[in-house]
Design brief:
Two copies of one chain form a homodimer.
Chain A (H helix, E strand, L loop, with lengths): L5 H12 L5 H8 L3 H13 L3 E8 L8 E9 L4 H12 L4 E7 L5 E7 L2 H12 L5 E15 L3
Antiparallel strand pairs in A: 2-4, 2-5, 3-4
Helix pairs in contact in A: 1-2, 2-3
Chain A binds a DNA duplex through helix 3.
DNA sequence: GGTGAAAATTTCAACAA
DNA sequence: TTGTTGAAATTTTCACC
């Protein structure tokens, strides 16, 4: 299962865009019999290439009207500081992504809130209250011309 | 469908994490009969709250071993420059996300490549070759302690 | 919102290339 | 090993209560 052949790649392409099409439909699109298609999908799931399935929800319907990326710098690079920060972040529902990055700052967050007031609240009460955090740079998302992960 | 009740929110929570569970399983988890559950899901799909379904793939299995966020600044804020940049980006498979942001720079990209050499190639041959681009700041992702969109 | 039955799909064992 | 067939088990779907 080390390297994927063309059919399996085609299956992954289909499922990454249409995660809930029937196996019959999938088999038809990739040009396999339903059982051959199913066997490949099951193997891809079993081996972990397919990690799961997600419904993609409309942010607006979920009450999300404000998205920002935030660069966060810590006062020191100690493991304790990082762990404390990550622990605080893990409990914050507004933080959808937290990436540990190289460069002049330590973290890049993606934050999703209802609106600007709730973002301000998060910014001051949550981020601003963390003693490890020494710099915060907000990049408010005005639009996403491309977002394959949405 | 203006505001969602508790059951529908529960359905959305389940489907956003387990997008392919059977309707029987879903109905059981949220405490509805299969037909009531199905009716709600269909309505959520029809109204656009559920925009679709996706299989979540393992990046490593897909040959992705290098992820970075890139802040991009343009030389001018003209519509022509933005359109030219976005057009170039839309054709770059390495760019998974492109966000138009507020602040000192215009764009924040998420780029996924096989490895550092292929990233360097993208960085110089693609981004560096765009005449509109005047600043590039890479934030290489070393890890993602939290990533609800993965 | 629930029930029940028809239609469609998933799943798998046996077999073929 | 990978693909196919066919039939049983399961699920989806919908008219009706």
């Amino acid at each position: 299962m080390s390297t994927l052949d063309a059919k399996s790649e085609q299956i992954l392409r289909e499922l990454s865009r249409h995660g809930r099409i029937s196996n019959l439909e999938l088999a038809d699109r990739v040009g396999l019999s339903p059982s051959a298609s199913l066997r490949r999908v099951q193997e891809l799931e079993r081996s972990g290439v397919i990690k799961g399935y997600r419904a993609v929800l409309d942010p607006a319907a979920m009450g999300i009207g404000f998205v920002a990326y935030i660069g966060v710098g810590l006062g020191d690079h100690s493991k304790a500081s990082q762990e404390a920060f990550e622990r605080a972040i893990s409990g914050a529902p507004e933080v959808v992504e937290c990436h540990n990055i190289t460069g002049t700052i330590e973290y890049m967050l993606r934050v999703e809130c209802a609106d600007l007031p709730s973002y301000k609240r998060f910014h001051t009460d949550m981020l601003g209250a963390l003693p490890q955090v020494t710099s915060i740079t907000s990049y408010v998302v005005m639009g996403s011309p491309k977002d394959a992960r949405a």
